[in-house]
Amino acid sequence: MIVKDILTTKRSCWLYLTILLLMLLGAGFRLIPLGHEAVDGDEMFSRRVALLPISPGYEKARDDLVHPPLYYLLLKAGISIWGADALGLRALSLLCGIASIGLIAILGRRLPDARWCGLLAAAGLAVGRYQVYYSQQARSYALYTMLVILLALWVEAISRRGHDPRFWIAGVFLMTLLVYTHYVGSLYVMATVLAVLACKLEPRTKVLTVASAAAAVLFFIPWLIAVAGVYERKHGVGENLGWQMLPSLNDLKSVWASAAGILDFRGATTVTFILILPLGISALVLVSKKQTLYRSPAVVALATMAVLPSLIIFLLSSPPFKLPLFGLRHLLPSTAILLLLCCYGLERLSQASARRAPLVAIGGAALLLTLGAVPTIMASRAGPTRIPYDMVEQRVEALERNGTQAFAASLYIEGEPVNFYCKSTCVQPLPKDQSVLPPRLLLLYRPVLTEEENSYRQLLQSGYADVGHAYYSDGIGDPWGTMVASLERRK
After folding, report:
1. Which one is the CATH code of 389-489: 2.30.30, 3.40.190, 1.10.287, 2.60.460?
2. Which pTM does this prediction carry?
3. What percent of the chain has pLDDT over 90?
4. How far is CA 139 from CA 13, 143, 182, 243, 489, in A?
């Protein structure tokens, strides 16, 4: 008995040491390139809300309509500790992204007959391109993903210890945090409830799960009442998200394929999707063969969380509803959960392969890690994954010393990030009355947007000449890049 306890302790030590190393790996992927990643307009909005007193900040978050207020409150607390510079703004997201690596490893370890799938999923999360990207951004997505992983862990916990009242208090608290972080969090709560109801659990556990979700909804109602008037006044969220196009089936497939990474070649999304789909299905089928699926709440919860929110958001964004909701960032938790489900399917496949188990495990793990790591490495080698507004600021300041003023077609998108780096108002909004403009100016605009391109064309038609311009985009050629045009009025 003593020997068995010692061996168990040693295995636990090695497990947590491995998890720690994977978290350090994830920290490296996130921190090493961070100094070259400029802040963007959305991050500047987060900063502006967080720096306001609580009441005006609450009103600004409410009027924005895009996100509930919890992230901004946590960010406000965070920057009071570590400052409001670029690293301070992103510290909360960095911590949540790194924590998610450890949490998904622990969740994988607790799945039925699982040993190493959680570690493989943690490695994938550590190097995944989109997980890295959103862990570096001062927005709510990394926190949101971490809370969904915690919710999946909660399902596994109540399936074993549903009699403990502390778990139900924790469940209400966790679900409330989730819906106050992101509106789509409500769909993950719904997916959790459906998974518990579908499984063979004590009736008391099912009732308390529904009650926990209902309590979270009740706690969320005050915020819904607060934003209802704004929603009506703005005629929905189109003012903020109307730029998003209606999604296609390929967009839905891309969200799921991004769980393992999307390589940079024609048809990559389809190839990646075809590779990961059998692994997710294998997890469900092989669990059903050894023990009925409805006796495995954690596995069922992974399946519903991975698929259901994506499908619902896709349907709501498509005709006849046409709500501009679909986007990878809103469904980022699904990609992390689906990655774990695929890794679990790979482990169960290797267990079913008998003598070929090592080949299946090593080959499949190598393929999944390659799919995840290669796009991240390629993107980092190509340059910053964000538009380099710090470099734009250098150009603006250089010309400002010669008396050239800078204007932005969109102060929110192009102007505020540049002003952040120049630590003053070196970029002003483009006035509607062009007669007040100086004879020489810099114009910052996005050519991909017709409205901003028209601002540039109108200046040319009103007597300005383009004497030089430079285009700033990310390392992979994002078409939403910013043009900086030097204009002079003709004599």
Report:
1. 3.40.190
2. 0.94
3. 65
4. 34, 8, 11, 19, 40
